[in-house]
Design goal:
The protein is of the alpha+beta class and 333 residues long. It has two domains: 1-106; 111-326, Endonuclease Chain A (Endonuclease, Chain A), CATH 3.30.870.10. 59% of the residues lie in helices and 13% in strands. It has an eight-stranded mixed β-sheet, sandwiched between helices. A hairpin with a 3-residue loop joins strand 5 and strand 6. Helix 5 runs parallel beside helix 6, helix 6 runs parallel beside helix 8 (195-215) and helix 8 crosses helix 11 (315-326). The longest helix is centred in the first third of the chain and has 55 residues, at 35-89. The chain crosses the membrane at residues 12-31. Keywords: Membrane, Transmembrane, Transmembrane helix.
Length: 333
């Protein structure tokens, strides 16, 4: 009822006209009023109808003006917001930066404990290349190089290896590295890190590279020596890059090849190698290495490579290098 009354009030003129027309029509049909009264009533109804039409037109024009004004206000407001929207959604906008930040988090996987060894083993299984940058390359010569070669033999595929380790002829960097390793938690049974041990480990990695190269026609290898010590170890295969530290208890990071930072690290390692001293590995062909290289063979090999052994290294030290190279053991087993 209230809704009906509200409608009547809002449309009072039309309602009165309708009521008047019906009343006059009924009276005219019953001849209760004269024709002049009926004609006057018709004119009154037409007047009311014209007034209603004019009122609707006025309301329509007013509404159109309001809509146009709203459109203009909206356009002006949007014009003011465009620069702010560009700051948010543009190529360098906050939205894009937020998206990149989220992507950068999702592209990195943190590995703990045994996950590190499993990830490295999986990376070795199907790769045709391996790039390493780190300290002396002990794990690389003991595990990575032999296993990658074995997988390559099974697939009858080639393997390219690039190794960057500290320069054993640079006593200063060897001392820095030995001091750093001594500062890490260590097993009481582990051999103490000294300058001589650091040198032996690096020399052993170079010897192992030459030794494997002479025994595999599937292998190409590039060895670089650097005077810059790094506390990280980078292992890059054709499927991922795994970043570890010397302390095996420290979590590692894995980035798959499909992610952006895989290529970034690939470029980083390439430029790092280019700034390091290249070992002329092809000169190793001048010295035939036995299955168990002799001390004399090893001395002649390092002379050919331009890496003379320290004068303090006697036959015992050279034999130790041979053992570390040919009979290398996984330092983390």
């Amino acid at each position: 009822m209230a809704r009906l009354l509200t409608w009547v009030v809002n449309n009072l003129d039309a309602f009165i006209g309708l009521l008047l027309a019906v009343t006059v029509a009924v009276l005219g049909l019953t001849n209760a009023v004269s024709q002049d009264v009926v004609n006057s009533a018709i004119l009154l109804v037409l007047g009311l109808l014209a007034q209603a039409v004019l009122r609707d037109r006025l309301r329509r024009e007013t509404a159109e003006q309001q809509v146009h004004q709203l459109v203009r206000d909206t356009r002006d407001r949007l014009t003011e917001l465009v620069p702010q929207l560009r700051e948010i959604t543009g190529p360098e906008g906050a939205l894009n930066r937020a998206r990149e930040a989220i992507d950068s988090v999702s592209m990195v996987r943190v590995l703990h404990g045994s996950e590190v060894g499993q990830a490295l083993a999986e990376a070795r299984r199907h790769t045709d290349r391996w790039t390493f940058k780190g300290g002396t390359g002990t794990y690389t010569r003991a595990v990575t190089l032999p296993e990658c070669l074995e997988h390559a033999r099974r697939r009858n595929a080639t393997l390219h290896v690039a190794i960057e380790i500290i320069d054993p002829t640079d006593e200063e960097v060897c001392e820095r590295y030995a001091r750093f390793r001594r500062s890490l938690p260590a097993d009481a049974r582990e051999e103490r890190w000294t300058v001589d041990r650091t040198r032996k480990e690096s020399y052993a990695t170079v010897l192992a590279a030459c030794w494997h190269l002479q025994r595999s026609g599937l292998l190409t290898i590039d060895v670089r020596l650097t005077a810059q010590m790094t506390t990280f170890r980078y292992d890059l295969s054709s499927s991922c890059v795994i970043i570890t530290q010397e302390n095996p208890q420290t979590p590692a990071v894995r980035i798959d090849r499909r992610e952006l930072y895989y290529n970034r690290y690939n470029i980083e390692l390439q430029y790092s190698r280019e700034q390091s001293r290249r070992v002329p590995i092809e000169a190793a062909a001048q010295v035939k290495l036995d299955d168990e290289p002799s001390v004399e063979q090893v001395r002649r090999l390092f002379t050919a490579l331009g890496l003379p052994l320290p004068r303090s290294f006697g036959d015992r030290e050279v034999a130790d290098i041979v053992g570390r190279a040919v009979q290398a053991r996984n330092p983390y087993s």
